[in-house]
Amino acid sequence: MAAAEAQGGGAAAAGEEEGAIRHRTVTANGIAMHVAESGPESGRAVLFLHGFPELWYSWRHQMAHLAARGYRCVAPDLRGYGGTEAPADVASYTAFHVVGDAVALLDALAIHKVFVVGHDWGAIIAWYLCLFRPDRVTALVNTSVAFMRHVFIRAGAGAVKTTDYFNQAYGPTYYICRFQEPGVAEKEFAPAHARHLMTRILSDRFSERAAGKETTENATVEAAALPAWLTEADIDYFATAFEKTGFTGAINYYRNMDRNWELAAPWADAKVMVPTKFIAGDGDLTYHYAGIQDYLHKGGLKADVPLLEELVVVPGAGHFIQQERAQEVSDHIYDFIAKF
């Protein structure tokens, strides 16, 4: 049976104000996972899944918002990130592994069903979780990355491997393509560059313009002023974590995209049968993938996710929408899950 133990003094904060963050280490699916929690343990649970290159910390605003409304908020660092164990084997970062982590974490915390909130890679994992184990999910709020069957699942005679799709669409310099070769991405994403990388990536908002460029380009240039939603303390939190761990674990998710595509083949014609709300910024790279806007707005997403109840596009918002538009996204999440 999975075990949970307190890390530092975090668990002692359980009796403090509901918005306070409690930290613990949970043994789940064979790895040690760092988990941040807030809100009453008796409350209905919300599982937050972060993206690249982020941490549980990306959900700090939403956790405070929902904890104050009586929800139990659970936000792990995903495997390979932050305080969670980072297996050395690249093949240990498949969707099966990460969905397994989520399910085992729920078991360790004695949570049967949750609301799931995902962003970026966390959104991809959330889509897979809802496909593989819908019995554990009450409802889903996903952000940034839509359900893209042809990218996530090998389906149909003309199926194109995920990395081939991105190479054909955007060329070999596209970040997903660059990330495939071990060593190349690690040179670009060296731990010593963590502060510059996090400043630039978050400030660029992961726009279509920024994503194709070498991220360490002009690394010695003084950073411009941070956007209003981002503080030096926020950069410190992310940078300190990645200076310690490096980025290899995080990048290994990309190195399993083709493997995930194959592993998910049994779900080739499956629907996501979970009540869902999807939120994206109109400045997000992912909102400008070829054909994605027609897919979202002309019935494609609804066909794949029949219980899709709401589709929200936030004008002017970029990729890191839960941080950029913290209050707006928090309200959207609460308004949706409060119905269940």
TrEMBL record:
Pathway the protein acts in: Secondary metabolite biosynthesis; terpenoid biosynthesis
Reactions listed under catalytic activity: an epoxide + H2O = an ethanediol; (24S)-24,25-epoxycucurbitadienol + H2O = (24R)-24,25-dihydroxycucurbitadienol
EC number annotated for this UniProt entry: 3.3.2.10
Entry's Gene Ontology molecular function annotations: epoxide hydrolase activity
Presence of the UniProt keyword Secreted in the record: no
InterPro entries with a match to the protein in the record: AB_hydrolase_1, AB_hydrolase_fold, Epox_hydrolase-like
Top-level enzyme category: hydrolase
Domain AB hydrolase-1: residue ranges: 45-324
Domain of life: Eukaryota
Chain coiled-coil ranges: none
Keywords attached to this entry: Hydrolase
Function: Epoxide hydrolase involved in the biosynthesis of cucurbitacin and mogroside tetracyclic triterpene natural products (e.g. siamenoside I and mogrosides IV, V and VI). Cucurbitacins have cytotoxic properties and exhibit deterrent taste as a defense barrier against herbivores. Mogrosides are nonsugar highly oxygenated compounds used as high-intensity zero-calorie sweeteners; they also possess pharmacological properties such as regulating immunity, lowering blood sugar and lipid levels, protecting the liver, and acting as antioxidants and antitumor agents.
Xref: PANTHER family: EPOXIDE HYDROLASE
Family classification: Belongs to the AB hydrolase superfamily. Epoxide hydrolase family.
Protein name: soluble epoxide hydrolase
Organism name: Hordeum vulgare subsp. vulgare (Domesticated barley)
